[in-house]
């Protein structure tokens, strides 16, 4: 793990007071530029003014008691095999505040993609959040297909040409003509 000078030692304990983050924000001792940390966990806090997005997000997590990635995973009722362990988040342990047990959601989603999907796509929590947002937007659109045709269910022929009511991403790509075979690859 890369060594940096970043520390969470000066971070305050969690508080439900909404005014506390503003006092923390203004607590800086100088106008110099914040420390730039290259390792993701180290980028969380430097003790300087919280100008970096990761620092501000960590302050929100700690001071406003935002739900952690683990809490969201439990609320989604994911099996334990799909929830990051403390070992998966061990790089956060040195920063204190039990971040390996109560990880800020933004960091959890990024780490989940790295650990479970080798960074190629979102994991169960991140993908679930994105999916729920997209479905919610579709459901709330009063002129959208789901509102106009509430009984509509997507159908698509499989690669074999049969409409079964069940299709995969490969079937969708084939239908769109962007699969490797359709492109002559």
Condensed summary:
Helix content is 36%, strand content 0%. The chain is mostly helical and 185 residues long.
Distance between termini? 41 Å
Number of strands: 0
Q: How big is the Rg?
A: 22 Å
Q: Name the beta content range.
A: under 5%
Rounded mean pLDDT is: 75
Describe this structure in words.
By secondary structure, the chain is mostly helical. It has a domain at 153-185. The protein is built from seven helices and no strands. Residues 1-45 have low confidence and may be disordered.
Reconstruct the topology from this structure:
Elements: H1 20-25, H2 53-63, H3 69-75, H4 105-117, H5 124-140, H6 145-148, H7 169-176
Entry keywords:
mainly alpha, disordered N terminus, 185 residues, elongated
